[in-house]
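ligand=zinc ion
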Amino acid sequence: MVVSSPVLLGEGPHWDDVEQALYFVDIKSHSINRLKVSTGEQTQAVIDGTSVDFVVPIWQKPGLFLVAVGLNVSEVEWSGEDIEGPLFGKPMASVDSDKPDNRFNDGKVDPSGRLWGGTMGPEPEVGHVVPRQGSLYSFESSPKGGINVKMHLTGVDISNGLVWTSDNSTMYYIDTGTDRVDALDFDIVTGEISNRRPAFDFTGHNVTGHPDGMTIDTDGNLWVACFGGSQVIYVDPREDELLGRIILPAERVTSVAFGGRNLDVLYVTTSRFGLTPEQLAEQPNAGSVFAVTGLGVKGLPGQSAISLT
Ligand code: ZN
């Protein structure tokens, strides 16, 4: 079911359990968006900058968000209402200073409140990304003052799909260019990751589309958006097993998050950016958020970030 009006390139859905609202970004109009699901009210604020790649609320600071803007992590104050004219974020940290044409892509907060965000290379044309230019970082305020920016992975094509298991032992990660979901050992105290290994291979399972954003359910199974595949697949990453798929009326499926009062609704973001007029006529709701119900599973609410100040 379509639950929002379309944006250009919807991404990064985050379920705010307190507000009962879904936050997401439109990378191409560089806006942050809020969907109040009980009323359907959809509001938007454009952020000054070149791209807006993820948004997460800051823990116990209502109206304050960490937003990826280009290559900066910025703190943004937003009432949640429609805003005329751009909001200006306060840059807190920046990455990839040697690669100014890169931009942030997907970001998430780990179970301890630590922000993670990855980058990708420039796109000379739609659908082509200069490979191996991206990296994966984490951000946390340092006990000595300032912000500790840690690079964990580099040589990444398109950084995507971060989730953690409920026992905090494992992080799952997607570099879209590998067509795989990988597992890594995760240390919640130090924030270190290690022992990267394949967990689910799109090519080996003949999955249509490329892995983009993902989320995890309370059974430990993964729900993976398939960009270019008109579907979300669900997989058991411990068994390298494809459990099923949900077909969507939009080809470019970008990311997923569980939400709703019982955390049993799967919200799916999609893109209309770069589609031809013919494709848009065939998939008029491309770019909208879709809600999928009746799945019989539950997820976890979006994790808000510990303030970087
Ligand atoms: Zn993505």
